[in-house]
Amino acid sequence: MVRGSARRRQPVAVIAAAWLAGWVGLTRAQAWNLPVGRRASLAAAVGVFGLPVSALAGTGDGKRRNLDASEVAKIVRDDLVARQFLATADFSPEIYDEACTFTDEIDTYQKDKFIKGTKALFVASESNVQLVGDVDILEGGKKLQFRFQESLAFNFPIVHPKVTLSGTCTLTRGEDGLIVAYREKWDQSIPEVLRSARI
Question: Membrane-crossing residues (predicted)?
């Protein structure tokens, strides 16, 4: 991450960074609650799930309960590497509890707000998420954890400034094996993330 250089960049970059500062303070939930016209201009086109429905529980809700932790880890790995879910919110819904909470350094969101807000805030085709290492199984399968490095392109109407950050994501599973909590911890502070902004 490059520090302090933003001050020496062109005026347009400085303006974009200032604008970005306001958007970083805007939660994903607030982004989705913008007026319809603005929301339409922000919505990122990010594909469809197209996910397998094998090994479904007999409840009829499509959830894959009580999977072995190694299988859940594989699904999470595929979601991150192939579907870039930290930037697209295109994760496998069948391994998440509907009441799962998603927490980053900004706020805590319910599942639907996290999905809609992420799709509104970022340009999927210009963002990139990398898995650093592998998805680790902790506490006998009760938790999964991985490290990530990402470049996120914000979906502004004219330009798409990018910020870079890294961190750790911990997924907590409930008694039925579904993920009930998602927690991101960034290696950088919010001001440091802002200073990484580039056009």
Answer: 41-58
